[in-house]
């Protein structure tokens, strides 16, 4: 059984991160790229949002005994096979995980244009994943 308090706490944090990311959308690219506080915040809150999704996915997989997670990319794959995650959203989530790895491990090489593009057009995918997890409550 999925423990609702675990999901609720992470969903609240995800909502907080998404609100901050939505506010960062309002800047033109030039304003965004010239201010380290803006792009640094965007990078960090994108990372935290992806981490929250991974935590929820791992929690559901463990609590429902859906499979074994060895790599982060196993989480969307298992949830697609065993819990009804949309295959298109699975692929987007796997790309998010790759971007999270860049933010964490290759942080000196982050392309801020990509961060800006994600703010402008990629938050919907995070919101779709949020709705997927909220359905487990």
Automatic annotation (TrEMBL):
Molecular function terms from GO: hydrolase activity; RNA nuclease activity
Keyword Hydrolase: yes
UniProt GO cellular component terms: toxin-antitoxin complex
InterPro entries: HepT-like (IPR008201), HepT-like_sf (IPR037038), Type_VII_TA_RNase (IPR052379)
Any Pfam family matching the protein: HepT-like
Record's keyword terms, sorted: Hydrolase, Nuclease, Toxin-antitoxin system
Family: Belongs to the HepT RNase toxin family.
NCBIfam families found in the cross-reference section: HepT_toxin
Protein name: Uncharacterized conserved protein YutE, UPF0331/DUF86 family
């Amino acid at each position: 059984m999925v423990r609702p308090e675990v999901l609720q706490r992470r969903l609240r944090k995800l909502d907080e991160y998404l609100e901050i990311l939505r506010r960062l959308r309002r800047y033109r690219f030039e304003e965004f790229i010239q201010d380290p506080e803006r792009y640094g915040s965007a990078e960090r809150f994108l990372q935290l949002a992806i981490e929250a999704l991974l935590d929820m996915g791992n929690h559901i997989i463990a609590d429902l005994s859906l499979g074994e997670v060895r790599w982060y990319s196993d989480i969307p794959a298992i949830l697609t096979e065993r819990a009804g995650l949309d295959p298109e959203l699975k692929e987007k989530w796997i790309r998010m995980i790759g971007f999270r790895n860049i933010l964490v491990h290759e942080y000196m090489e982050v392309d801020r244009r990509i961060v800006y593009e994600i703010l402008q057009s990629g938050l919907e995918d995070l919101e779709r994943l949020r709705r997927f997890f909220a359905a487990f409550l």
